[in-house]
Amino acid sequence: MRKKIDKFDLQIIKLLSKNARLNYRQLAEYLGTTRQRVSRRLEKLEREGIIKKYTIIPDFDKLGYIYVVLGITVTPGTPLEEQIEILKNDESVKVVERAIGTHNLVVHILVPKDMKEVEKKITEITGRLKNVEKVDVTFITEIAKFELV
């Protein structure tokens, strides 16, 4: 059953999506309410799985990495859950998304800034998967905007 969230919950989510470091006091000030109300709502949103994770967006270039997105198409009938489990166990894989459209899976990986290493990692990842028909590779040069709400 889908959980009901209201405008207040959405305001909390939007503020945290812009800055996950905001504390209860700061959120309460922005929203014109009490820390206790914010605390109760956040606990509810976390408990119900609406807020899954608090995170950061690092500058991969400054860290010496390349951010790559793989669009993977597998043969129809190939069990995606098995493929997803294989991908989830790779430390270079940062995001795995099921998709409808050109690709069945969209996979975000982080690899050192060395094209031979990039090629090796892509070959390694896709080689473990079954029935891969096609892989499209996209190199991300900059995250210009990242906003989920």
Automatic annotation (TrEMBL):
Top-rank taxon: Archaea
Segments forming domain HTH asnC-type: 5-66
CDD domains per record: HTH_ARSR (cd00090)
Assigned GO CC terms: cytosol
Keyword list, A-Z: DNA-binding, Transcription, Transcription regulation
InterPro entries recorded: ArsR-like_HTH (IPR011991), AsnC-type_HTH_dom (IPR000485), HTH_CRP (IPR012318), Tscrpt_reg_AsnC-like (IPR019888), WH-like_DNA-bd_sf (IPR036388), WH_DNA-bd_sf (IPR036390)
MF terms (GO), sorted A to Z: sequence-specific DNA binding
PANTHER family: LEUCINE-RESPONSIVE REGULATORY PROTEIN, TRANSCRIPTIONAL REGULATOR AZLB
Protein name (database record): Lrp/AsnC family transcriptional regulator
Originating organism: Thermococcus aggregans
